[in-house]
Amino acid sequence: MANKMRVAQVAGPGKPFEIVERPIPEPPPGWVRIKVHACGVCHSDSLTKEGYWPGIQYPRVPGHEVIGTVDAVGKGVSQWQAGQRAGVGWHGGNCGYCDNCRRGNFFACTVDLKITGISFGGGYAEYMVAPAIALARVPDELSPVDGAPLMCAGITTFNALRNSGARPGDLVAVLGLGGLGHLGVQYAARMGFRTVGIARGKDKEPLARELGAFHYIDSQAQDPGAELTKLGGARVILATVTAGDAMSAVQAGLGPRGTLVVIGAAQSMQVSPLLLIAGMREIKGWYSGTAIDSQDTLAFSVLKGVRSMNEVYPLERVAEAYERMMSGKARFRVVLTMAG
Ligand SMILES: [Zn+2]
Ligand SMILES: [Zn+2]
């Protein structure tokens, strides 16, 4: 069926994935249709799958780590044309005129904040439509599978680090060596930071060094705060884990004016006010970024050879791919590919 496509949709909160046929959508004015080649499976897709996002409507197709090719553009779209490669990430658009948008805080848009795979159908599909503002250019050097995880895990770590205040030569630690952390170490090392990897167990040390860390701290055998202090104290610690106690354990390793940048969605963490006060330290969160940040991430990744390690599944095996991602055992990101 030439005008039909297959998508992996969720019919309601907590419902299983189902592969269904739908008509290929026409892009509305200001939107672009993309033929999807690959889409990463991110932990945040559980917001769609399990119904944790307030107000989400079903059926919904998840997926916000999309790499594909533009194959039709809606009215008024002048910057994209059919045949161009494009990526779509978490940030699916914003109004552009509310006070937060006017201050450049697009992530806090109060009028029309769009999240790919939540506000509109995402990339677990052969085709999708997205607002033109949500598209990033994809360098030719990047395959769809290589590019997909960079559209969320990549941009989040890259953008958090480049906005962290750390400068080349500064001591920067990456807590966790999973889907986010294994990219974080690569970006930190290639940005010129003295990069330290922190994870549980001695067995992760070769990986950390291979990714670019000059030093490794085994948080099971050593006190990461004390070890970082011995190295002079971290200018930045990028916390990629989802365990609050692991985050709490590293804060003592921040140097004066050091910043703990949190990108792992832990339930809670302990903070020492005295530590913050005495060292003028800070803790801040970072969300991924907009399409131009994704575009910068892809370009930097090509320039410096940053790649995600991926486990690849065809769209039909979406349920298995999702379970694998949720198990936390994937090394390190899970990616869906579309046939044809
Ligand atoms: Zn994500
Ligand atoms: Zn707005």
What can you tell me about this protein's structure?
The protein is α/β, with parallel strands linked by helices and 340 residues long. The chain has 11 helices and 17 strands. 25% of the residues lie in helices and 28% in strands. Helix 4 (153-162) packs across helix 5 and helix 4 packs across helix 10 (291-304). Bound molecules: zinc ion (ZN) (2 copies). One zinc ion (ZN) is lined by residues 94-95, 98, 100-101, 109-111. Residues 42, 44, 64, 90, 152 line the site of one zinc ion (ZN).
What are the salient characteristics of this protein?
alpha/beta, single chain, 340 residues, 25% helix, binds zinc ion, 28% strand, 7-stranded mixed sheet
Q: Over all CA atoms, what is the radius of gyration?
A: 20 Å
Total number of strands: 17
Instruction: Classify the oligomer.
Output: single chain
Mean pLDDT: 97
Helix/strand order: EEEHEEEHEEEHHEHEHEHEHEHEHEHE
Q: Spans of 5+ residues with little confidence (pLDDT < 50)?
A: none
Number of helices: 11
Beginning-to-end CA distance, first to last residue: 13 Å
Q: Determine the fraction of residues in helical runs and give it as a percent range.
A: 25-40%
Structural class estimated from helices and strands:
alpha/beta
- Determine the strand fraction and express it as a percent band: 25-35%
Largest sheet at a glance?
7 strands, mixed
Query: How would you describe the shape?
Result: globular
Small molecules held by this entry: zinc ion
List strands and helices in order, with pairings.
Elements: E1 4-10, E2 17-23, E3 31-41, H1 45-49, E4 66-73, E5 85-88, E6 91-93, H2 99-102, E7 114-115, E8 127-131, E9 135-137, H3 144-147, H4 153-162, E10 171-175, H5 181-190, E11 194-199, H6 205-211, E12 215-218, H7 224-230, E13 234-239, H8 244-250, E14 254-262, H9 273-279, E15 282-285, H10 291-304, E16 310-314, H11 318-327, E17 333-337
Parallel strand pairs: 10-11, 10-13, 11-12, 13-14, 14-15, 16-17
Antiparallel strand pairs: 1-2, 3-4, 3-8, 3-17, 4-5, 5-9, 6-7
Helix pairs in contact: 4-5, 4-10
The structure holds zinc ion (2 copies).
One zinc ion is lined by residues 94-95, 98, 100-101, 109-111.
